[in-house]
Amino acid sequence: MATGTSIDVVMPQMGVSVSEGTITKWLKDVGQTIASDEALLEISTDKVDTEVPSPASGVIIEILVPEGETVAVGAVLARIGEAGAAVTPPAAPEPAPAQPAAPAEPIAAPTPPPAEVVPAAPAPVAPSTVPASTHVFVSPVVARIAAEAGIDPTTVPGTGNGGRVTKKDILAFVARGGAAVQAPAAPSVPEPVAPAASMPAAPAAPVPAAPAAVTPTEALPDVAEAEPGETLESMSAMRRGIADHMRRSLDTAAHVTSAIEVDMSRVVALRTELKDAYLRDYGVNPTYLAFIARAVVDTLRDWPWVNGELRGDKIVTRNYVNLGFAVALENGKGLIVPVVKHAEGLNLLGMAKGIADIAERARTKKLTPDDVAGGTFTITNPGGYGTFMGTPVISQPQAGILGTYALVKRPVVVEDALGQDVIAIRPMMNLSLTYDHRLVDGAYAAQFLRDLTHRLQTWTVSDY
Amino acid sequence: MAEKTYLQAISEGLRQQMRHDKRVFLIGEDIGVYGGAFKVTLGFQEEFGPWRVIDAPLSETAIVGGSTGAAIMGLRPVAEMQFSDFISCAYDHLVTIAAKQRWRAGTAIPIVVRLPSGGGFSGGPFHSQNPESTFAHIPGLKVVCPATPEDAKGLIIAAIEDPNPVLFFEHKHLYRRIKGEVPDERYVTPIGEARIHQEGDEITVITWGAMVHTAAEAAAELPDLSIEIIDLRTILPWDKEAVLASVRKTSKALVLHEDTRTGGFGGEIAATIAEEVFEHLDAPVRRVTAPDSPVPFAPVLEKAFIPQVADVVAALRSLSEY
Q: What distance in Å separates the CA atoms of residue A378 and residue A432, rounded to the nearest whole number?
């Protein structure tokens, strides 16, 4: 199917830590023409959803990966040919090399009892599955054991660096008959079990085919089944990422939440004053969030652990703030936390622009993975829906997350110019700080909130 | 059986072999009247006389050249370099003549050159080196590096009985620091056989000389890891089968030596592992060695130069986590 004039569309590298992506939607069909840089498909990685532009103008002659499949970075997704090129109907997945008709040959030769379970030379056993095209490093010993046992090593849960499958992992996998187990929470690994455990010690008679029935394709069965009235759907890559991250964060940090009430009168007044001019001159809305973010950045300078991190047994503090903003996607499709980098260098206008930019790109799926990486503190704003309190989950490895809640007019007791108590109507907002108590103590967090409140209540022109 | 220091064990081996074989004689700088720079041969001249314990002039060339000639004439010389570093003066006699004589003319050259080697006491660049790999590259020589008193005694006797030129590296830092049970009788520890210093099944450490003890200390700091320590004992010929068998078992290997890195014997071991048991490896073969630098005098720098327990612990951890 190779042609000298076609151009491959490959799964793009969406940032350094992303190794694979899922095709969520093909925007063009085979045979359609496409212009260079025109959106060709949508992909979803564990960090962002985005469009992939066409690398060239021409006709789509082949689509190699159907929607819903996950492939490694660099995998060829489609081919684009010159206008008029012959097209290939959308093929089913890559034709698999003809599988050997059921491995009738037992893995161990039945003749003399095998003295050694692990032959010195790699036995040329055909793997019973087509190896997945992921780019996970497989060490020589793991490759050899996998070949001998007829296992696809990518189906084995790994406990090594970066989830690498270690020799122990695959030996334990083989010993269990190839059944997948839940990865242990702690990085401890199962007892190493000699591969002999799963093999008959000395088969007198020919061993029946597949003694330790290793069926890797069924190794990770989807056990969930719908009861009557229920509907099952697969988790998106983003949902899986969120699930993992939320669980990991709660398992990692000691979450504690403190809240404070802020009189936003000054901010409301200032915003009213600035809004038209900002919209007219810069095309950007000075939102309450922008004011709060500005005040947060200044306050973090005085309370650096809130902007810090526990790394191993060290405390990391920083002379900069990469401010994350939790952005909900439509219809509960997920949550994304794009980051305004180096927010300490932004005035109110810059902050407003920065927030508007990431919000717009989040909505239009134009974020890159680097836009969502590197945050040092996060603000989440569920107040738009009227909630007045919450306990958000910290984005790891950060130490805190600020929640901003509904701005409501409430009667409050204030002092008038004569020192008399009066009841006034004020725009009030609750702020919550959820912090990692391993690093940040309650008093420290409370002082952060106090100073933040003070800034918001005494905002002056010089704080822009 | 009695507990002896590494130095006492070498001394006892020499003495027993001199009593056992009248062809054996010692030659070196200050080894007679003074008893040797490190007192390995203290009292030897009194027992064996000045013709069997010869104080040589300050000429390593003469010592090794003379020993080679004496060996050709049927004697069994044991030459001492006051520090192994000084062997370079005798390089030509050793490498050009002694190592090749048997291959070239069929003449056995049964000499032993004792080489007090290694650092750890601020001896600086001329008194601290570990030049074993230089001679491991010379076919015709044998290179021995014992780590324990028992092996030091058995191997010095084996070296004297061997018909080839044998370089016997005695690590100075072990002389009085390391003690162990040593059989009283005269015995031979075979050249070319490694010893399992400690059994384990997760990581193999291949080392020799003083680093055997560094490796053992590091392993003791990691009780949750099952570490196998192989003491090679002999660098040439080295016990490949012992190393390969262990790596087949553990799938992870760390080569540790006090010598500098580039061209160090660890490279040969790592290459052999990669060639012979590649399909058993679960991690890259790691090396912990001295950096490519002369040995510094300053204690702080020397400590940074010689592999320390912490360096080995860190390397073992990273291999374990790989």
A: 12
